[in-house]
Design brief:
The chain has about 230 residues and is an alpha+beta fold. The chain has a domain of about 130 residues. The chain is about 60% helix and about 10% strand. It has 8 helices and 4 strands; from the N terminus they run H-E-E-E-E-H-H-H-H-H-H-H. It has a 4-stranded antiparallel β-sheet with strand order 1-2-3-4. Helix 3 crosses helix 4 and helix 4 runs antiparallel to helix 8. The radius of gyration is 21 Å and the shape is elongated. The relative contact order is 0.11.
Length: about 230
């Protein structure tokens, strides 16, 4: 990278694996490229709403909520579109159906990854003798809940990873990392150059999720009783 390039602040990009391809999202546009069955690369591009470039995105917490909704909404919609581009079908999830799908996914995720471990851990407190240990028992109960959450997450990833469609999506997961790593290094974005970069990226959402679960296990274990009500 030249001295002039180092002085310039590179725009921030994020990505996501889709069916037979990847999408890249900036502050103003999102672009997607997928591989059709005949080997042809199909592309799609759209401009993002002005909301994500407004002052609201500078407010802590609010920008996180908006960013999460944007990732779920945009990601699910373009994942469906990529499937249509590959298969030649036209089955879009939009409007009310898209909102209901995202809300259902959030509720299901909270139920499986948060409420279920808490309920199972609470049910096991008695048989394992945690209730009679006082404060150490509370720590052990929280630790058990965190470990259950981690196990459920790993099992979930392994199970869905065995589904043919999801496996194909996972196979493109590292492509976005390589591309962004190459871009941030100032390298010309050619297939040969990009292939030489690592699959790992520090802003990977999946890695962040696993790291967050591990930290939460340690953090919540020290908080004592955490009743659901």
């Amino acid at each position: 990278m030249t001295a002039n390039q180092k002085e310039l602040r590179l725009p921030s990009y994020g990505g996501q694996a889709v069916m037979e391809g990847v999408l890249m999202r900036g502050k103003q546009h999102v672009a997607m490229a997928v591989r059709a069955p005949d080997g042809q690369i199909l592309t799609y591009e759209e401009q993002l709403p002005a909301l994500y470039r407004s002052k609201w995105m500078n407010i802590p917490f609010l920008r996180g909520v908006l960013g999460l909704w944007d990732s779920l909404n945009l990601g699910m919609r373009l994942l469906t579109k990529s499937s249509n581009m590959v298969s030649g079908k036209d089955e879009q999830i939009e409007g009310k159906d898209l909102v209901l799908t995202v809300v259902f996914s959030l509720v299901l995720g909270i139920g499986i990854f948060f409420l279920l471990p808490a309920l199972v851990s609470g049910w096991l407190d008695g048989p394992l003798g945690f209730e009679s240990l006082g404060k150490p028992g509370n720590w052990l109960s929280n630790l058990l809940e965190g470990l259950l959450r981690l196990v459920i997450l790993i099992v979930y990833l392994v199970v869905i990873g065995r589904m043919p469609e999801v496996r194909r999506v996972f196979s493109y997961h590292g492509a976005e990392h390589k591309t962004i790593n190459a871009f941030e290094a100032g390298t010309e974005l050619t297939p040969k150059n990009v292939s030489e970069f690592t699959l790992v990226h520090p802003r990977c959402g999946t890695s962040f999720m696993l790291t967050l679960v591990l930290i939460s296990i340690l953090f919540f274990s020290l908080l004592g009783p955490l009743p659901l009500h």
